[in-house]
Structure formats: C-alpha cells, structure tokens
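Human: You know discrete backbone vocabularies at least as well as I do. Show me how you would write down a chain together with its backbone fold. No explanation is needed for now; the record alone will do.

Assistant:
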Amino acid sequence: MYQGCTADAGAPIPLALTRAVLIYALNQMAGTGKVRSRRGATPRATATATAQLALDLARRPTGHGGWRPGAGRPRGRTRVPHLTRPPCAARHPQHVTLRLVAGLPSLRRHHLVARIRASIAAAHRDDFRVVHFAVLANHVHLVTEASGAASLARGMQGLAIRIARTVNRGLARRGRLFAERYHARALRTPREVRNALAYVLHNARGHAAARSQRLAATWIDPCSSGPWFEDWRRAPAPPPWLRDLRRRPCPTAPARTWLLTTGWRRHGAIALDERGPPGT
C-alpha cells in the first residue's frame, strides 16, 4: 500500500499520486504500442507528445486545489509596476499622477481643495517644486520639477503624506488614501510640455465633456492652478470669484526649467476653451 493511501474505497487519493499514476500509465501504453504515433515520428517525438498529453490531462481541475480555470489576479486597469524608476534629468519637468483608493468621496470639495493647496505650498524644496496641479474627483495631476530621481521620490513622498494626512482629517477617516505609488512621465520637448499643461489645466473640462456637460468657454477650473496661470490666450476680465481666489497666495512655485519657462511657448498660448483628449 502506498504511503498516504488507505484501503477505504471512498478515501481521497493525493493529487500528486494521481498525476504520477496517470503519467506512468500513458508511458506504459506508449511503450507497448497502444498509443499510435504519427507516421515517421521518432521515439523522442512520441515521448514528447505523450508527456504533453499527460500534462494537459493533469491540468484538469480536480476539486482538490492546484490549477483551475480563471484563477489568478483579476484583469483590470494596470497598476504602477514596482520597478526601478528611470533616471530623472533636472531639465525635464515631470507629469505626475496620484490616484485614490476606491470608495472615497470626491476631492473636489472646497474644504478639501483648500487643504490640498496648503499641502502643495508646504511641499516645495530647493530640489523639488510643484509648478501646476489639478484636483479631480479621485486623482490629482501635477507638473513638477526636480533635480533628480531621488529628489522627485523624496518630494513626492513628502507631498503624498501631507495630502493623505490633511484629507483624512477633513473626511474624519483613517487609513490609506492613495491606491498606489505615483506615476511619473518625463516631458522632454516643448510640445510635450505644452500638451501636458493643457491636459492638466483642462482636465476637469475633459471629464465634463465625457459626461456631455457643457461649460462656459471662459470657465477656469477653480480646483487647479488655472486661476494663477498667466498665459491664457485672450483671457477676459475675471469674474468676482476668480478675483477673490487670485488674492490668495499662489500655492505653486515658479518654474525654473527652460521647458516650463520659455520652451513650451514656441507652440502658442493655451486657449481657455482648448479641446484635447478626454480627462483621465
């Protein structure tokens, strides 16, 4: 009697033993000629086909654990992989995205946006600064400058901690706020920088368009750095709420890189109603 087996007819047989017996029986059948092979096939090819057949049969679900169809991590939006981040050149701004865990209220509330503005203003360092931002319902877009990859990582770590603490206090909750680590993309050309600026400043407009919601052509997102942006094309006289907001200290830091101060302007100012890809 094999170890682990019993004489009871209804006792379960270990899965490993079942596979071993199956492979042995198929090999015996191949050796006695009861399993037909292709005409002209070599013994090695026959053995390979037999082994493949055994593996295919062994992969059938048995109800005792092991392989089963549909197992594994469910498919969905790809998370930011935990890989070594690419080098970050000081001359290249970064487009950074922070996403929240599911099930939280929208961040686009006046008291939460005020807390996030204060966190951004307190996060600037000599080697890291936030130049533009946009607060959306469940994520935050940033355009940053950093002197290197380590400076970007330290700056974003400090900023994420500040935002998490103050938003959790504002929501009277505890626990994790961001679903994953930040995603960063280097902006290496004037065109890329201009596109990123338009994308971040108009991100709320893109989300509204995706919901078939029409906004005024002169509307500026109050939950972004748009009210302090000075390079709008043909900006009209600001409404009272915008004048009041501009009297407050600007939460962002002045740009220092050539791409963010001069380079992107080669492709023209950004219109208030400029259309781009839907917001994400």
